Amino acid sequence: MAKDVGRGTKRVGESSSTYDRSLLSSGVAVMALQGDFDAHRLKLSEIGVDSFEARRPEEVDSSAGLILPGGESTTMWKFFESSGWEAAIRRFAAAGKPILGTCAGAILLASDVTNPGQKGLGLLDIGVERNAYGRQVDSFVGQVEAPRLGGSLPAVFIRAPRIRRVGQGVETLATLHGEPVLVRSGNVVAATFHPELTGDDRVHEMTFGARRRERKAG
Q1: Residues near 152 by beta carbon (within 8 Å), at least 6 away in sequence
Q2: Is 177 a catalytic residue?
Q3: E strand spans, 86-166
Q4: How many of the other CB atoms lie within 10 Å of CB of 132?
Q5: Minimal CA–CA distance to 155: which of 169, 172, 170, 175?
Q6: Could you confirm whether 204 is annotated as catalytic?
Q7: In this structure, are residues 162 and 117 in contact, taking their beta carbons and an 8 Å threshold?
Q8: Counting Cβ atoms within 10 Å, is residue 165 exposed (0-12), middle (13-18) or buried (19+)?
Q9: Beta strands in the chain (DSSP E)
Q10: DSSP run (H or E) holding 211
């Protein structure tokens, strides 16, 4: 079930629910329509990257990065159809800034979606099958092989999709039993699992760590 969508945007540690637009460019936008956006913000805070809850599409444009969290992709599309989220995410991707989609977020980023069929943003040339491991009771925690990230990663799979097709130009960064579970094409990264629910920060560091390094260098 979708969480209520409020009016404010806040950073980790802020008590106010009112956002200051002048602050948006210094943080990663975590789409806070529905899903586990709080866990992503905590993970970003752990690696020293500022973030804020993005509840309106216009808040995305000035951000340094974007996370499309887990949840229900069909619910998210309902929000997309009633506002300008789709256009905002496409603009953001075209600007070359980093995007991470996890679980339902990976479904949103895909070119083609099955089980059942659903629209995707097409920002990653992958084919995704929804709920491919079974129902909620079939969720599990496993280890995925991620040699490009330094070795195996803990991974939480909750009603997870499976990547059934990887297109040309899409790099596989992690696998489970030989199947891709973490992929990247340019500035867009998708994970079929929930990296924010483990103690490992390598997926977030890979995607958004450059933001922290740029800030320190400045």
Answers
A1: 143, 144, 145, 146
A2: no
A3: 99-102, 110-114, 124-129, 140-144, 153-157, 162-166
A4: 18
A5: 175
A6: no
A7: no
A8: middle
A9: 28-31, 51-54, 65-68, 99-102, 110-114, 124-129, 140-144, 153-157, 162-166, 171-176, 179-185, 188-191
A10: helix 202-217
46 is catalytic: no
Give 150's DSSP letter. T
Q: Pick the catalytic residue from 53, 59, 129, 196.
A: 196
Taking residues 181-185, what's their average pLDDT? 98
Which pair of structure tokens corresponds to residue 175? 């696998």
**How much of the chain, in percent, has pLDDT values that exceed 90?**
68
Tokens 């920002």 correspond to: 123
Catalytic member of 40, 53, 129, 194? 194
Q: Which CATH architecture has domain 21-217?
A: 3-Layer(aba) Sandwich (3.40)
pLDDT-derived band of residue 214, with 50, 70 and 90 as boundaries? low
What is the pTM assigned to this prediction?
0.85
Q: Encode pLDDT of 107-127 as tens digits.
A: 999 999 999 899 999 999 999
Alpha-carbon distances of 18 from 6, 53, 57, 58, rounded to whole Å: 10, 11, 16, 15
Count Cβ neighbours within 10 Å for each residue of 18-37 and write b for 16 or more, e otherwise. Answer: ebeeeebebbbbbbbbbbbb
Residue 90, phi-psi category: left (phi > 0), alpha (psi -120 to 50), beta (remainder): alpha
- Of 40, 53, 59, 103, which one is the catalytic site residue? 103
